Amino acid sequence: MHDDPGSFAAAAGPLLQADPLSHTVALSVLDAMCRGGEPSAVLLTVHEVGEVTGAVLRSPGRPALVSAVPARLAPAVDRALAQVDPAVDGVSAPVAEAEAFAAARVARTGCRAEPAMRMRLFTLGTLVPPEGVPGRARRADAGDVALLGKWRHAFGVEAEHDQGHAGDAEELVARSLRMGAGEMLWEVDGTPVAQACAKPVVAGASRIGPVYTPPEHRGHGYAAAVTAAASQWALDAGARQVVLFTDLANPTTNRLYPRIGYRPVHDAVELRF
After folding, report:
1. What pTM did the predictor assign?
2. 13 pLDDT exceeds 80?
3. Domain-by-domain residue ranges, the chain?
4. CB-neighbour burial class of residue 245 (10 A; exposed 0-12, middle 13-18, buried 19+)
């Protein structure tokens, strides 16, 4: 166990950075923890013969991120987490790692593991911004926090995520801006109609999300346009890889992103116990 994100990053950083696509969520969450923008509930590394071979981290109220827990280590990590972080009630990772950890938990406790969300990770090839979409992109600032908080909350409700109160969503947006994320708005005649966020670049990669268009503005290509704008922001910020997750239950987004240059990498899942 690590008492602070800095020591965890020193130990687990090389393992996570060796595969920034598989560990995209863990890397961005750890970056936020190290910069004081995200609290930590558990920071655990596995050491074998002096080498870090596994790592897991969790933010309060969130599933444990187990992308860096190989299947062979899942039973040991599950037992360790049961002692130091009994509040763990779910995991998120690429399918193989998530299912291996869930199998260890089920074998130990007899609980059930149920999917909360099935996702697909996409990475950007050549960006192809959509043509003919009215409006323009701009980067959000402090004056947009209330609107983006409202939209962040609506996104969470619509996606059936636990986003808490609208005020909590506003704080998430304000924190994102303080951390230097590319919070992008698409405007038509000065009116915001869609948003997309590009996370700060970590280990050469930036992750897009969330992307949200209010219902009254859908069907005009704004989501594709603002996602392309956020992707360009990430590239301009130095990202060598730009990635995003889609909900496999949403066929619209799984068709949308390939049209602007994204290609699938692997599937991931969030499991609840």
Report:
1. 0.91
2. yes
3. 5-112, 124-265
4. buried
